[in-house]
Amino acid sequence: MTDYFEVFGLPRKLSLDLQELQRRFYDLSRRHHPDFHQTAGAEAQATALEASALVNRAYRTLRDPISRVEYLIALEEGREIREETSAKPRPPTDLLEEMLEVQEALEEAKSARLTAETSARLRAERERLEARRRAEETAVIDGAAEWDDAVERLAERAPLLDRFKQRLAARAYLRTVIDDLSQALGEDVETHVAHRRH
Length: 198
Prior knowledge:
Blueprint lengths: L3 H4 L10 H15 L9 H22 L1 H13 L15 H19 L4 H27 L1 H9 L5 H27 L4 H8 L2
Helix pairs in contact: 2-3, 3-4, 5-6, 5-8, 6-8
């Protein structure tokens, strides 16, 4: 598995100087861009194209703090980012119990005409879950300093990875329920996703 941190000559840490990352990205992009290798042989052009694609993938992954953590987990577990882990963490039990109540509200909304009262209830639930999803993301991002400190001290990092995985599992579960709420409200999920990203 290619180490994206190594691509940019960086240690496997989560707190990154984004301006420095961007500077290294531009430098590597210029070095490997296929346009600068047009007079080279076919093999050299293919190598440059592959290197350019790798640099782009690595930059897209590392510039985003959540993607960076997801990638780090995969890297530490020795698997590709898109591979499913055999021990996929489940969201916390209290969250699952809480979601059962939301699912019941969703089923009610689907089985009956969506009234103004039901719509207001679903929107309120969605806002509450959005806040919780953001809190999970913040907790993951805030764990970066703790991870970096453990790396520097050569301390045990497995418990931190487990905590990241639990937070990310909760976030993924929340996103699914939030999308379900948007659909029940008759709102386009993609539009809502685009809106919540801004």
